[in-house]
Amino acid sequence: MRILWTWIIALLAMMPVQAQELHIGAAYWCPYSCSDKEMPGFLTEYVTWLLAKRGVTVHVKVMPFSRAVNSAEAGIIDGVLSMVPSEAPK
Fold first, then answer.
1. pTM for the model
2. Which helix (H) or strand (E) holds 7?
3. For residues 84 and 90, what is the distance between their CA atoms, to the nearest angstrom?
């Protein structure tokens, strides 16, 4: 599991970011992503911090996972936090 997180974090750090603002959906999966604004979860905090260093504001909205996937596929949001390609190949 540690290797997977390291891989995800490394990809986020290396990817070219063109947007100034990203809207990302996340399933309620505390302590990774939580609906509490003061304690949003450590994955939410880390991704927000990492992209803020590159000048990108991240808005994470906690929602049911299937709605997050459908919203990303429809272009309503920019992506889904903590998802692997096999969960939504599109």
1. 0.72
2. helix 2-14
3. 11
DSSP 24-86: EEE--BTTTB-S-SSS--HHHHHHHHHHHTTT-EEEEEE--HHHHHHHHHTTSSSEETT--GG
Match 């809207």 to its residue by tokens. Answer: 23
Identify the CA nearest to 72 among candidates 25, 21, 17: 25
CA distance 43 to 46: 5
CA distance 54 to 52: 5
ω into residue 31 within 30 of 0, thus cis?
Answer: yes
Q: How far is the C-alpha of 39 from the C-alpha of 21, rounded, in Å?
A: 21
How far apart are alpha carbons 73 and 7 in whole angstroms? 23
Say how far apart CA 28 and CA 51 lie, in whole Å: 21
The tens digit of pLDDT for each residue in 27-70 reads 998 998 998 888 999 889 998 998 898 888 999 999 998 998 89
